[in-house]
Design goal:
The complex is a heterodimer.
Chain A: E1 2-8, E2 14-22, E3 27-35, E4 38-40, H1 44-52, H2 59-72, E5 76-78, H3 82-91
Chain B: E1 3-13, H1 15-30, E2 37-43, E3 47-50, H2 56-59, H3 62-68, E4 71-74, E5 82-84, E6 87-95, H4 105-122, E7 128-130, E8 134-137, E9 140-150, E10 153-161, H5 166-172, H6 181-191, H7 195-199, H8 205-220, E11 222-226, H9 231-245, H10 248-251
Parallel strand pairs in B: 1-2, 1-11, 3-4
Antiparallel strand pairs in B: 2-6, 3-5, 6-10, 7-8, 8-9, 9-10
The chains are: A alpha+beta, B alpha/beta.
């Protein structure tokens, strides 16, 4: 199953997320995070997408995984944050 | 004596060449081969640039671009889609460790945007910096900016609108909800302004360049010395243009 969301982060930018996931267990197969936000370094977004594969679309697990990737790879987001990314992904499932 | 930075006035180029030149300056500066550099440029033909994280398919009506002879290119900086037509574009490239540049990314946006505000003031325009990356005049956007930091070097580029054609812009950009397109166009018209709209007369590209040169000199207390791209930068830019910015692989990567 593939679905998309468009989410305006409060005080931030417009996030457009597309997720391909297994409907039976809600596990992410592929994810594309696009939008007019900023991330430093930019290439970290591809890494984030890769690291979110096999994560269950569930608030706690998403938030934990996103935060751990941000910390591990020293990613700085501007206009979006871990909570915003999580919400954008969760919205794909609604 | 004031610190001297390089000023480049490279005139009008294609989208691919423009983005390649900014990247070439970034590489040359990161290797200590050129001083901090401020560049002013324009776009011919007009073009859309999209932010690094944006999707071409989601943002651009590629068929409409082809029909109107408008190019499109993916930037190495984040941020949103921009229709580059009647505007002056600037870029600044400077080491991350330079004392003029705050370590904090948001603060550095503010500092560089201050240079633009000084420049606008020269034209009799009072603007304000609106974080994250905009400059507003009377609450309306006149300038958008985007920054990247690579190999310990800052590149920020942005636009100052000379004039704006919202209808053409929206014929080239995709709108997520077609039903509200008309409303969106009227909303954007209320939220965007331009130098010519504010001063009520035609202002030449060169006048804005002069004003912005003053703005950068004022904000950073430096002297901008007219220069040219080095041979190495030109070679590098040609490579970036050919192997990156003009390729489908780069532009359609997201």
């Amino acid at each position: 199953m593939r679905s998309q969301s468009v989410y305006k982060v409060p005080q931030g930018k417009l996030l457009k997320i597309s997720v391909e996931y297994n409907e039976k267990n809600n596990v992410i197969k592929n994810i594309w995070i696009t939008g007019d936000f900023f991330a430093y370094p930019e290439e970290a977004i591809e890494l984030m997408e890769k690291k979110l594969r096999n994560t269950v679309i569930e608030q706690g697990q998403l938030l934990e995984q996103i935060r751990s990737v941000i910390t591990e790879y020293h990613i700085q987001f501007i206009g979006v944050d871990a909570e915003g990314l999580t919400k954008g992904i969760l919205m794909c499932k609604l | 004596m004031k610190e001297q930075w390089r000023l480049l006035q490279t005139g009008f180029s294609t989208a691919f060449s423009n983005m390649a030149i900014d990247r070439a300056i970034l590489v040359a500066n990161s290797q200590g081969k050129v001083p901090p550099t401020v560049r002013f440029y324009g776009w011919n033909p007009p073009a859309i640039s999209i932010g690094y994280f944006q999707s071409v398919a989601e943002e651009i009506d590629v068929k409409a671009c082809k029909k109107l002879g408008v190019d499109y290119v993916r930037r190495i900086t984040g941020g949103g889609a921009v229709f580059h037509d009647k505007e002056v574009t600037y870029s600044i490239v400077i080491p991350e460790a330079h004392p003029a540049i705050p370590k904090n990314i948001l603060k550095s946006y503010g500092r560089i945007c201050n240079a633009l505000l000084h420049g606008l003031k020269q034209l009799g325009i009072q603007g304000t910096y609106a974080p994250i990356n905009d400059i507003l005049v009377d609450g309306k956007k006149i300038s958008g900016n985007a920054q990247t930091r690579k190999v310990n070097t800052v590149l920020q580029h942005g636009t100052i609108l000379l004039d704006v054609d919202v209808e053409t812009m929206f014929s080239l950009l995709k709108v997520s909800n077609e039903k509200i397109k008309d409303k969106l166009i009227s909303d954007i018209k209320q939220r965007v302004t331009s130098i010519e709209h504010i001063v009520g007369k035609k202002i030449h590209f060169e006048e804005v360049e002069v004003a912005l040169k003053f703005g950068f000199e004022e904000e950073f207390d430096v002297k901008l010395i007219q220069g040219i791209l080095t041979k190495e930068e030109k070679t590098l830019a040609a490579q970036f243009e050919k192997k990156c910015f003009s390729t489908t692989q780069w532009n359609h990567r997201r």
